[in-house]
Amino acid sequence: MKLPNYLPYRAAAVGAALLVSGPDFSRAQTTPPLPEPPGTVRLADNLFVDEAEVANLHWLEYLHFIRRDSSAQFFRSQLPDTTKWVSTSVDTGQAVQPFFWIPTNRTNPITNITHEQARAYCRWRSAVVSRGYFQSAAFRKQHPELRDYTVTVEYRLPTEAEWEQAAAGGLPPGPRPFELVQTRPTRKSKPLPLTAADDLVACLDAQHLPHPAAETAYELPFNLKENYYLAGSNQVFFCAPARETFPLHAATSGPPNGLGVLHVIGNVAEMTATPGLAKGGSFKTSVQGLTLRSRQPYQGPQNWLGFRCVATVRLVRK
Questions:
Q1: Which residues sit opposite 49 in a β-bridge?
Q2: 285 C-beta neighbours (distance < 10 Å), count
Q3: Facing residues of 217 across strands?
Q4: Is pLDDT at 133 greater than 70 in this prediction?
Q5: Percent of the chain residues past pLDDT 90, beyond the cut
Q6: Nearest-angstrom CA–CA distance, 177 and 228
Q7: Residue 33 and residue 44: Cα distance in Å, rounded?
């Protein structure tokens, strides 16, 4: 599964005003439009946000380069807390490998990191994208209108208001209680009549939830604590899959909101610029009562907590 090309060596966000220096400052209105940083969507003139949550793959790239360019002490300080999630051997029941290092989990969002580690990643990403992407020959060829400007970008964690703006996607809340934002479905939801879904009926019975025989169930579109809902009553419930699955979904899985931003609800809660304050809920969060304004407090690394960056672009006339 392809991930957004955040960084320049993979071939290839808010509110600061456009800055222009030089003798043409008084003619700032003629400055070319700001280019979008890789892997982001535009929220305003100089407001960009990552399409997807930062993934394990991106963190592995970060570790690779700081191991080469930084001290061993700093490299060790940027490792995720791998004690939060480890796989177990089916044969022995013993822990065998942290999930972060398993190749099949590289598209999952990075978790088990601190607020300061996320901020350090944003600073590093700002430097490498400014230097490696915006100053590349390929970028200059694609944007000849910017040949007289030096382009740089600053990534950082979003404020709470910025996160809500990105999550809402320019659209009002959806018509059902669990549709916190309107989304563009990636596939047509398949109806599951209870008359032909004994496993769902058993789950409803075990939770003492009423369910008329003619009721139809659907999969919940977000990766939250509940994974099904009843079409008639909007009752949400959890029904365990036939085989155990890893609780996180790929960072690039859907559905997108109105702006094309993925997983603004569920999967992992997302850090904000305020330490200890996350937004969006996670796979451990019940949809009951969850809104765009809901907050998820945290202390230290968590296996349900990740982040995405916001960015601003700066143009300086050469």
A1: 41, 310
A2: 23
A3: 192, 230
A4: yes
A5: 67
A6: 13
A7: 12
Give CA 10 to chain center in angstroms: 19
Please state, in angstroms and rounded to a whole number, the distance separating the CA atoms of residues 306 and 102.
18
Which of 17-31, 97-111, 301-315 is the least confident region? 17-31
User: Which letter does DSSP use for residue 175 in this model?
Assistant: S
> What is the tens place of the pLDDT at every residue in 261-278?
999 999 999 999 999 999
Q: Measure the CA–CA gap between 237 and 205, rounded to whole angstroms.
A: 11
Alpha carbons 228 and 221: distance in angstroms, whole number: 9
pLDDT at site 10: 37
Place of tokens 């992992």: 268
The mean pLDDT value for 127-136 works out to: 96
* Three-state secondary-structure class, residue 26: helix
Peptide bond into 275 cis (omega under 30): no
For the residues 218-232, what does the mean pLDDT come to? 92
Residue with tokens 């939801």: 189
Please choose, from the candidates 104, 12, 86, 105, the residue with its C-alpha nearest in 3D space to the C-alpha of residue 51. Answer: 12
User: Cα 192–193–195 angle (5° rounding)?
Assistant: 135
Maximal CA-CA distance, the chain: 75
Predicted confidence at residue 221, as pLDDT, reads 86
- Given a cut of 90, whether residue 104 has pLDDT beyond it is no
CA 25 – CA 297 distance, rounded (Å):
44
